[in-house]
Amino acid sequence: MSRPASQHTVRRHNCALVLDAIAAAPGSSRATVAARTGLTKATVSSLVDRMIGARLVVEGEAQSRPGPGRRGTALHLSPAGPHGLGVEIGVDHLATCLVDLTGRVRTSWLRPGDNRASRPSRVLTRVAAAIRLALKEDVAIGGVGVAVPGLVESATGILRLAPNLGWREVDVRGELTRRLGLDVPVLVGNEANLAALDELRHGCGAPDFVHVSGEIGIGAGIVLNGELFEGVSGFSGEIGHLSVDPRGPRCPCGSRGCLERLAGQDEIVRAAGVEDLPTLLTALKANDRTATAAVHDAAKWLGVALSGAVNLLDLPTVVLGGAYARLEPWLREPLLAELGRRVVSAAWSPVHVLASTLASDAATRGAAGTAIRAILADPDPYVTAVLA
């Protein structure tokens, strides 16, 4: 049955309301926040003072105003407040970063290494060590976000399947919480979805797009109306496992001709006859015909998969992330040509193709951002814990 809201519930709601107003319009005064939220000046002042004490908010200089009266002070999210700790478990690397409340990256680390040959327990041991190193930084940690290349069930946070790692049914959140004894939230998400969220907040800023993360695996994050579309269980965006050639090579997922087996980073490098991505880029800049043909072939298969997504969801923009962002100068024209042929609405609504400016950092930053957004959406529990 419905019950009246308690005093604590009302304060919790109003605290989120006030912090959201400050985040949306940095530099606002208490009076401006009160006018924007409809709360009394006294209520706003009390909540702001609590958040200043918890280092969520910081005061700036007094605002200039005409005529007599007290000048209000500008309010901002505090860069010295709690940070989000982002972790990415990649197929060939581990990455971590610390991001403050304003979205600025304080510091980051990258550790190359092939995780396909390691058991989940061994990789998670290395992840725990990387987190311990980040925790030595002189900042408060408000939460940990973990990006993984596979199906993460939104209701449980369990990694159900990561074909390129060979992982099944791994409770990443539970394992890390147990190993580290963390008293802050640990949030786990698909790396492509988290990269798309970071692109939404700090990249292209478009309200509707598909962000394609091209690495060894290929994932897509779908943003509609400024919100991430995760599907019913959180499993949307697995564009790398769309079969674009039913007679193509076997994929670790069990199917044939999946996009990532034809247009993934490993396949492009192999077809170009080079050793790695940096060597591929050098060859492309030198107009090497084999390297250029390999990228053009990948663009064709990418266009086949993306045209299906665009036709289904009427998406106006494709953002190329990860390795694709670096390959964009050579991918763009053949990809646009394929989309032009296959997207039925192209004559009236041509698809725009952009290179992400965040490139390979987007998933790690997006993971850290999940912890930040959780605090911004509901700051009162954090404030209460700090001030207790």
Structural commentary:
There is one protein chain. With 388 residues, the chain is an alpha/beta fold. The protein folds into three domains: 7-77, Winged helix-like DNA-binding domain superfamily/Winged helix DNA-binding domain (Arc Repressor Mutant, subunit A, Orthogonal Bundle), CATH 1.10.10.10; 83-194 and 363-387, 2-Layer Sandwich (Nucleotidyltransferase, domain 5), CATH 3.30.420.40; 204-357, ATPase, nucleotide binding domain (Nucleotidyltransferase, domain 5). The chain is 43% helix and 21% strand. It has 13 helices and 15 strands. A five-stranded mixed sheet has the order 5-4-3-6-10, with helices on both faces. A five-stranded mixed sheet has the order 13-12-11-14-15. The protein has a three-stranded antiparallel sheet with strand order 7-8-9, with no helix packed on it. A hairpin with a 2-residue loop joins strand 12 and strand 13. Helix 1 packs across helix 3. The relative contact order is 0.13. The model has no long low-confidence stretch (mean pLDDT 91). This is Transcriptional regulator, ROK family. InterPro entries: ATPase_NBD (IPR043129), HTH_MarR-typ (IPR000835), ROK (IPR000600), WH-like_DNA-bd_sf (IPR036388), WH_DNA-bd_sf (IPR036390). One of its GO terms (molecular function) is DNA-binding transcription factor activity. It comes from Saccharothrix espanaensis (strain ATCC 51144 / DSM 44229 / JCM 9112 / NBRC 15066 / NRRL 15764). Residues 15-60 form the HTH marR-type domain.
